[in-house]
Automatic annotation (TrEMBL), chain A:
<keyword id="KW-0808">Transferase</keyword>
<dbReference type="GO" id="GO:0030488">
    <property type="term" value="P:tRNA methylation"/>
</dbReference>
<feature type="binding site">
    <location>
        <position position="190"/>
    </location>
    <ligand>
        <name>S-adenosyl-L-methionine</name>
    </ligand>
</feature>
<feature type="binding site">
    <location>
        <position position="144"/>
    </location>
    <ligand>
        <name>S-adenosyl-L-methionine</name>
    </ligand>
</feature>
<keyword id="KW-0949">S-adenosyl-L-methionine</keyword>
<dbReference type="GO" id="GO:0031515">
    <property type="term" value="C:tRNA (m1A) methyltransferase complex"/>
</dbReference>
<dbReference type="Pfam" id="PF08704">
    <property type="entry name" value="GCD14"/>
</dbReference>
<dbReference type="InterPro" id="IPR014816">
    <property type="entry name" value="tRNA_MeTrfase_Gcd14"/>
</dbReference>
<dbReference type="InterPro" id="IPR049470">
    <property type="entry name" value="TRM61_C"/>
</dbReference>
UniProtKB/TrEMBL annotation, chain B:
<dbReference type="GO" id="GO:0005634">
    <property type="term" value="C:nucleus"/>
</dbReference>
<comment type="similarity">
    <text>Belongs to the TRM6/GCD10 family.</text>
</comment>
<dbReference type="Pfam" id="PF04189">
    <property type="entry name" value="Gcd10p"/>
</dbReference>
<keyword id="KW-0539">Nucleus</keyword>
<dbReference type="InterPro" id="IPR017423">
    <property type="entry name" value="TRM6"/>
</dbReference>
<protein>
    <recommendedName>
        <fullName>tRNA (adenine(58)-N(1))-methyltransferase non-catalytic subunit TRM6</fullName>
    </recommendedName>
</protein>
<keyword id="KW-0819">tRNA processing</keyword>
<dbReference type="GO" id="GO:0031515">
    <property type="term" value="C:tRNA (m1A) methyltransferase complex"/>
</dbReference>
<dbReference type="GO" id="GO:0030488">
    <property type="term" value="P:tRNA methylation"/>
</dbReference>
Length: 386, 440
């Protein structure tokens, strides 16, 4: 039985190893340019680099690099996951991103079989991640008070094969509460005024075991008001977190060693040469100064000269702008000594891979307030000592 | 027998010792042999197995008979009392203490010295001893301390609450047997023995589970030298559906942490394993051609069974098509990735952990330069906890690091004009310019 490939659970309605009509495909151009398409014969996707008819995607393996119709551009056809969906979904609201989704899932003890409430549904970013984690035996009840957003989310859940395990409802939970009682293990509230829904949320928890709640609020004032309401309702172990993910960039860094006396001398000589040629022949035509070929390979001290160098194999030259009206006199070139040349050649440049956070990255979107609800029904203590 | 009074406002029901068939509900209750992470008043934690025959010693906080907790829910505060262990208010509750403060209370005139406490050291020791025996309730000890404190009345409400909390950590006997889960095990080991789990913090573990798209029914390859924490986390997120394929060192795989999850025997085992040394057939597996001098039939049979299991697992791995590769290993990461990526299906994630970003760097550069991966990212989780009860402020101590994660998706490359143009774009363009100049 284990030899068979288990069906995709709680994910998107994906059928097989290759892309088929009706599959949702994540179209990946770059990390910041991710979108999706439902494969429909006759339709096409287009970006700056070309067009990509859906028909050409059918039968391709998941993860294939896919050329545009002309072959001048390409995208990757990726398998839909809640994480990629979060990057590509149509934003109808501010959405939850993966760092928050990860930490909330863990702190609410989500795993297959968990029954959970989410309010509001918003753009359904977290809903997909919840469904993936609690499938196949769990159930998500998700509430949205904006009718248009509710209808769109409901349609998406159905399209993604989640209708059986996600119940979407158009409901203002702050004013009308929940119909569920003694049913769920966890509650997630992403509402402007979560404190108005807390008393109602408390009733939805299974009565005989501990329940977990998370309130997601962008403002510190909301956190404080929520905390007071949680305390008043008897929630315990109230904790608040801020989570970020710090990305790193990789760069190749060149590490130069300090110059030796010979190297310094050589550079001074070249500097004098350049200055002299500028002073004595201030014309617009170009005078070429012959620099020993050895200097070419000695990057980066020789780098300024390389700029004027055409081919690596040819002796390097320095281009100097020359004014035509100037009186031409013979340039007396200072001599570059052989040992100075070899010193430049030996000058060492180490290369290493450097890691640094980018100058700008995503900050956190909200504060996460967690709390625990203790069982409201308790086992009767048996006479253990008897 | 009298009925013990549980926490406020709760009702009583029969002991829930009949499995309901729902793993989530069944796991919520303590049973004979359950593992528990006992959270002590000091906030330290202790991993113990609750067998009804044993008495669990908790040092200065006393001890309790595990039998008394059978059928009771996890994650609930219980107080160790003279007559036994009983449900109690949560330790964070300050119920029973009067912390109202006179207006204008401040530490303006506070002089902090030992004499502020009128009880002598001997008095306090005596109270402690009585409390240990269970004759005096810990709440009374704390009340005695604060009633005899000259500075008590000058304290602000916040200062009073803080004072009580500090004393509760010392004198209270309220413990919480936490249900072991990937989260609570990670938190426990991160605090008590971080090296065992490669100093992996709970937010980092969480990020790995989502980055790798772990779900029931998935088939994952895991290289887990983090004490089996990754394996346990995967098993927990799969609840018997799918496969966790461990590549392990030596002959034995690490499943310790899976054992602590208290999974009912009704949950099928999703674990499969293969030792690194058995990726290819070893000489000792060729028993058809080996001349084995062994008269013990049973022993020989066990040997054959073991070899057959190894062969079956190797064949399973070689069949490929896995849904993710998740790694926390001291081995050369690039070698691990190169060896195992071929077994992944297309578009599937590779997620690797390290305490050191430097050990991930080489593979990251490889991911970036190779055409077989996209969306390569190296990142670090950053987590700050705030105090919110009684004023919001960041916690004094925060964790410095929870480790680094490298992730990428496996893709299938193909030749397009675009690759030619793009790779030629930089060099080729420059080449034309060069030509023009040299032609002059």
């Amino acid at each position: 039985m284990q030899e068979q490939k288990a069906p995709t659970l709680g994910g998107f309605a994906v059928k097989g190893d290759c892309i088929e009509v009706g599959d949702i495909v994540i179209l990946y151009s770059s990390p910041s340019n991710v979108t999706y398409a439902t494969i429909t014969p006759g339709k096409q996707f287009a970006n700056n680099f070309g067009r990509y008819p859906h028909d050409s995607m059918i039968g391709k393996k998941w993860g294939s690099k896919h050329p545009s119709a002309t072959g001048n551009g390409f995208i990757y056809l990726l398998y839909p996951t809640p994480e990629l969906w979060t990057l590509s979904l149509p934003h109808r609201t501010q959405i939850l991103y993966n760092p928050d989704i990860s930490l909330i899932s863990t702190h609410l003890d989500l795993r297959p079989g968990v029954k959970m409430i989410e309010a509001g549904t918003g753009s359904g970013s977290f809903s997909h991640a919840i469904a993936r984690t609690i499938a196949p035996t769990g159930h998500l009840y998700t509430f949205e008070f904006n009718e248009e957003r509710y209808l769109k989310a409901k349609e998406e859940f159905a399209d993604h094969g989640l209708a059986d395990m996600v119940t979407a409802e158009h409901r203002d939970v702050c004013n009308n509460g929940f119909e569920q009682t003694d049913l769920v293990d966890a509650v997630f509230l992403d509402l402007p005024a979560p404190w108005d829904a807390l008393a109602a949320a408390k009733k939805t928890f299974k009565k005989n075991k501990t329940g977990k709640i998370c309130c997601f609020s962008p403002c510190a004032e909301q956190v404080l008001k929520t905390t007071l309401a949680l305390q008043k309702l008897g929630f315990v172990d109230i904790k608040m977190f801020e989570i970020l993910v710090r990305p790193y960039e990789v760069k190749t860094v060149q590490i130069r060693s300090l110059p030796t006396l010979d190297q310094a001398n050589c550079r001074h000589t070249i500097g004098r040469l350049k200055r002299k040629s500028r002073e004595e022949e201030p014309g617009e035509s170009v005078v070429e100064l012959e620099i020993p070929s050895a200097l070419d390979s000695a990057a980066p001290s020789a780098a300024p000269f390389k700029a004027g160098t055409e081919e690596k194999r040819e002796p390097p030259t320095i281009m100097v702008e020359e004014k035509t009206s100037a009186v031409k006199e013979e340039v007396v070139a200072p001599v570059i000594e052989e040992k100075e040349v070899s010193a430049i050649k030996e000058s060492e440049v180490k290369e290493m891979v450097g890691l640094k956070p980018p100058k700008e990255s995503t900050g956190h979107t909200s504060f996460l307030t967690f709390a625990t609800l203790l069982p409201q029904v308790f086992p009767q203590k048996q006479n253990a000592t008897a | 027998m009298e009925v013990d009074q549980p926490a406020n406002g709760t009702q009583l029901m029969d002991v829930a010792d009949v499995p309901t068939g729902n793993v989530i509900d069944d796991c919520a209750f303590i049973r004979d042999g359950s593992w528990a992470i006992i959270q002590l008043p000091s906030e330290n934690t202790k991993l113990v197995q609750l067998k009804s025959s044993i008495n669990v010693p908790l040092g200065k906080f006393g001890s309790f008979s595990a039998a008394e907790l059978m059928g009771f829910p996890f994650d609930v505060p219980y107080e160790i009392e003279k007559e036994g262990i009983n449900p109690a208010p949560h330790i964070s509750s300050l119920e029973g203490f009067d912390i109202d403060t006179a207006e204008g209370a401040s530490n303006k005139d506070l002089v902090d010295r030992r004499e502020a406490q009128k009880l002598t050291q001997t008095d306090i020791e005596q109270l402690k001893a009585e409390s240990m025996k269970g004759n005096v309730h810990s709440e009374s000890v704390i009340k005695a301390l604060l009633e005899n404190s000259e500075t008590w009345e000058q304290k602000t409400e916040f200062a009073k609450a803080k004072y009580i909390k500090r004393k509760q950590k010392k004198y209270s006997k309220i413990i919480i047997p936490q249900r072991p889960s990937a989260r609570t095990l990670c938190e426990h080991f991160y605090k008590e023995n971080p090296r065992r789990i490669m100093e992996m913090r709970v937010d980092t573990l969480s990020l790995m589970l989502t980055a790798a798209n772990i779900h029931a029914g998935g088939r994952y390859i895991v290289v887990d030298e983090a004490g089996g924490l990754l394996t346990a986390a995967l098993v927990e997120r799969m609840q018997g559906l799918g496969t966790v394929f461990q590549l392990h060192e030596h002959e034995q795989n690490n499943v310790d942490l899976v054992k602590y999850l208290n999974l009912p025997s009704s949950v099928p085992n999703v674990l499969r394993k293969l030792s690194w040394g058995r990726l290819q057939a070893n000489k000792d597996e060729d028993f058809e051609n080996l001349d084995i001098a062994c008269d013990d039939e049973a022993k020989l049979e066990r040997y054959h069974a073991r070899v057959n299991a190894i062969r079956a697992n190797r064949a399973y791995l070689n069949a490929g098509g896995f849904d993710g590769l998740i790694i926390a290993s001291q081995y050369d990461l690039k070698q691990v990735v190169d060896t195992l990526t071929p077994f992944l299906a297309g578009s599937k994630p590779i997620v690797a952990y390290s305490q050191f970003k430097e050990t991930l760097t080489e593979t990251w550069v490889h991911f970036r330069n190779s055409r077989d991966f996209v969306n390569a990212q190296l990142s670090e989780g950053w987590l700050r906890e705030y105090q919110v009860v009684g004023g919001m402020h960041p916690m004094m101590r925060m964790s410095g690091t929870g480790g680094y994660i490298l992730s990428a998706l496996k893709v299938f490359d193909c030749e397009t004009n675009a690759t030619f143009i793009r790779s030629g774009g930089r060099g080729g363009g420059g080449g034309r310019k060069k030509k023009q100049k040299t032609d002059e």
